[in-house]
């Protein structure tokens, strides 16, 4: 039976504010190869800085064998896991491990909470293995001999700002929150810091929301009924107790979404992240972020920070936040087991895709290639396509001329992974897709085995499209490096020359004050408080730059014309507005502003706003504010 248990530990330090907006960069595959060679099964995985270099490492606890291995972070990859301990208790998998500095020496130690697992003396306790930077040494006696029963959620975090991680346990059955403070050599007596917090099916977490050095208690009401669904509650630590709960966010992380806590902005305050799209192999994953202002999580509408790769059930559902590259900002990690073919003797492999937090745009250039002085490109001479599909299946690459409809297919193309599950492998060349200068293309990577595709190689079937981007061809431009599977369509992010005047032909153009580029439209929509976080941002840029293919440019410009110098009081999703205006997913009209039915557009905006905010407005003007 294959099983992985997720544990997340975050320990990042403050960083001064950055000028550019933060986001999760395109995913990069970080690999892990077991030094002993066994399959990556029956593991508990945790992330934390075990050697004090400021970068979170990957810790693997094989609970059937009692072996603990660590893949140290190099800042750009995890090294081959080395054995840090071989004498850990063997359990049936119920135990919890976390990496936290319990003695204040700057190195993350391994905190093991059997959680009521079998074959463990004492059943429920807290054991510690101190880190030397190269190995874990298990203490002969538990640091707390009565801790973390099977029905509790337990964490190791610094609750009183003494630079030593303490213990906190949420008792969802009854509500009390227990703590046990570290003395540097043991955990002290259990104490109740809050009598009723994080109960029933709420998701419990801990993080320093206000930046005072003391971790606070956090509860996500993911599946609550009525108006409470999506509420995020905060119970702040005073150093001796958790204060009365306060509302941190009114609607964030619901139903099956993964709720994470970590300092992604680097300001010393814990933020919240929701990963959505689970259980749908036909969808890309999305990561939504709401930043802490010290008292609550801001952005009434969570802003999207990244669209993640499409995944399969075999490696879905495992996520963590940890600063793996040492820039003081927590990065998003997606990881899981990649099964090997049944007819081979190879072991399963553990893969991790890191979406690094950054304030720099993705350029679409090959790794290691210096970015030009001006990050705005005016076209690409060709496309270098890399098959890095996470399930290592073959893809077909389609090149479709947006204006003429001419299309070409290349494939099937093998995945470019090496024996260490790195992609590209550095040996095999990418697939080159030729372009004609001056033309605009839709590039589609088709995965025939995708759910709903039914084995067909058809770029027009939504379920078959593994990844899509738009590019403008230019004879003397650079090559667009398109990493399909783990990375975003970086080329499209900066192709700002999808100008409406060039593409629309006989279209009636909007007023000069309304932007005519994809990036300009996105900027103007943001200023107007129009949220575009629901669709894939890279793909949306392509839609906004191609009025002959999608109605988004015309609808967006007409909407901006209606808003004028004002903005929406409460944000509305542009894709919901577009869908309510034209519910046909394959619609290509309206292509121009002149074709937009203004009354119909106002009705679509009202419907989208009322649906999102639970209101009953009937006048478009009431949605706006100067």
Account of the protein in words:
This protein has 626 residues and is mainly β. It contains 7 helices and 38 strands. A 5-stranded mixed sheet has the order 1-4-5-6-7, with no helix packed on it. Helix 3 packs across helix 4, helix 3 (518-527) packs parallel to helix 5 (552-563) and helix 6 (574-581) crosses helix 7 (598-613). The model is unreliable at 1-20, 34-39, 117-122, 279-283, 309-316, 362-378, 486-490 and 492-513 (pLDDT under 50).
The number of helical segments is 7
In the sheet with the most strands, the strands line up as 1-4-5-6-7
* CATH fold annotation of the largest domain: Neuraminidase
Described by strand count, sense and barrel closure, the largest sheet is: 5 strands, mixed
Q: Which whole number gives the mean pLDDT?
A: 77
What fraction of the residues are assigned to beta strands by DSSP? 25-35%
Distance between the termini: 60 Å
CATH C-level class of the largest domain: Mainly Beta
> Regions with pLDDT < 50 over 5+ consecutive residues?
1-20, 34-39, 117-122, 279-283, 309-316, 362-378, 486-490, 492-513
Give the helix proportion (percent range): 10-25%
Oligomer: single chain
CATH architecture of the largest domain: 6 Propeller
Rg: 25 Å
Strand element count: 38
Number of domains: 3
Shape: globular
In short:
With 626 residues, the chain is mainly beta.
Please describe the topology of this protein:
Layout: E1 4-6, E2 23-24, E3 28-32, E4 43-48, E5 57-62, E6 67-71, E7 82-85, E8 96-100, E9 109-113, E10 127-131, E11 136-138, E12 152-157, E13 166-171, E14 177-180, E15 191-194, E16 203-207, E17 216-220, E18 232-235, E19 246-249, E20 258-262, E21 271-276, E22 285-290, E23 303-308, E24 319-322, E25 331-338, E26 349-355, E27 357-358, E28 382-387, E29 395-401, E30 407-413, E31 431-434, E32 440-446, E33 465-472, E34 479-484, H1 490-494, H2 500-504, H3 518-527, E35 530-531, H4 537-544, H5 552-563, E36 567-568, E37 572-573, H6 574-581, H7 598-613, E38 624-625
Parallel strand pairs: 1-4, 28-34, 35-37
Antiparallel strand pairs: 2-27, 3-26, 4-5, 5-6, 6-7, 8-9, 9-10, 10-11, 12-13, 13-14, 14-15, 16-17, 17-18, 18-19, 20-21, 21-22, 22-23, 24-25, 25-26, 28-31, 29-30, 29-32, 32-33, 36-38
Helix pairs in contact: 3-4, 3-5, 6-7
């Amino acid at each position: 039976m294959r099983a992985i248990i997720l544990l997340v530990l975050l320990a990042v330090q403050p960083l001064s504010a950055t000028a550019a907006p933060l986001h999760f960069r395109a995913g990069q595959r970080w690999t892990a190869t077991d030094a002993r060679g066994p399959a990556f099964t029956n593991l508990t995985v945790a992330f934390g800085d075990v050697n004090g270099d400021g970068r979170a490492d990957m810790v693997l606890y094989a609970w059937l064998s009692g072996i603990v291995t660590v893949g140290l972070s190099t800042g750009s990859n995890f090294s081959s896991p080395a054995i840090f301990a071989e004498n850990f208790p063997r359990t049936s998998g119920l135990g919890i491990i976390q990496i936290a500095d319990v003695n204040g020496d700057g190195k993350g130690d391994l905190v093991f909470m059997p959680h009521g697992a079998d074959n463990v003396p004492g059943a429920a306790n807290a054991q510690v293995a101190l880190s030397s930077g190269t190995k874990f040494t298990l203490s002969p006696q538990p640091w707390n001999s009565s801790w973390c029963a099977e029905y509790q959620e337990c964490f190791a975090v610094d609750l009183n700002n003494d630079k030593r991680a303490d213990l906190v346990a949420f008792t969802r059955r009854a509500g009390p929150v227990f703590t046990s403070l570290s003395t540097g050599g043991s955990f002290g007596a259990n104490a109740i810091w809050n009598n009723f917090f994080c109960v029933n099916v709420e998701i419990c977490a801990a993080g320093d929301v206000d930046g005072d050095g003391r971790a606070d208690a956090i509860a996500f009401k993911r599946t609550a009924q009525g108006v409470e669904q999506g509420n995020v509650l905060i119970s702040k630590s005073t150093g001796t107790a958790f204060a009365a709960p306060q509302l941190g966010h009114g609607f964030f992380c619901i139903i099956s979404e993964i709720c994470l806590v970590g300092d992604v902005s680097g300001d010393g305050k814990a933020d919240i992240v929701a990963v959505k799209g689970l259980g749908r192999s036909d969808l890309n994953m999305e990561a939504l972020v709401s930043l802490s202002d010290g008292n609550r999580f801001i952005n009434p509408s969570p802003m999207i920070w990244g669209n993640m790769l499409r995944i399969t059930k075999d490696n879905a559902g495992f996520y963590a936040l940890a600063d793996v590259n040492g820039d003081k900002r927590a990065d998003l990690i997606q990881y899981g087991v990649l099964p090997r073919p049944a007819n081979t003797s190879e072991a399963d492999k553990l893969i991790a895709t890191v979406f690094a937090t950054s304030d720099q745009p993705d350029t679409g250039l090959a790794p290691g290639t210096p970015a030009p002085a001006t990050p705005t490109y005016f076209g690409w001479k060709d496309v270098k396509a890399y098959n890095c599909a996470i399930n290592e299946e073959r893809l077909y690459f389609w090149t479709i001329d947006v204006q003429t409809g001419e299309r070409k297919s290349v494939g099937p193309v093998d995945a470019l992974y090496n024996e260490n599950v790195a992609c590209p492998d550095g040996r095999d060349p990418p697939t080159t897709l030729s372009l004609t200068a001056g033309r605009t293309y839709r590039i589609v990577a088709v995965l025939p085995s995708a759910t709903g595709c039914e084995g067909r190689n058809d770029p027009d079937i939504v379920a078959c499209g593994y990844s899509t981007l738009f590019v403008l061809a230019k004879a003397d431009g650079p090559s667009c490096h398109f990493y399909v599977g783990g990375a975003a369509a970086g080329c499209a992010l900066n192709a700002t020359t999808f100008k409406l005047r060039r593409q629309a032909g006989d279209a009636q153009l909007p007023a000069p004050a309304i932007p005519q580029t994809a990036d300009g439209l996105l900027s103007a929509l943001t200023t107007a408080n129009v949220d575009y976080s629901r669709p894939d941002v890279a793909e949306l840029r392509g839609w906004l730059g191609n009025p002959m293919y999608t109605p988004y440019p015309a609808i967006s410009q007409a909407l901006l014309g209606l808003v004028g110098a004002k903005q929406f009081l409460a944000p509305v999703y542009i894709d919901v507005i577009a869908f309510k205006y034209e519910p046909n997913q394959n619609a290509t009209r309206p292509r121009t502003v002149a074709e937009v039915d203004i009354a119909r557009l106002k009705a679509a905006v009202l419907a989208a706003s009322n649906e999102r905010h639970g209101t009953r407005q009937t006048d478009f003007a009431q949605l706006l504010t100067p």
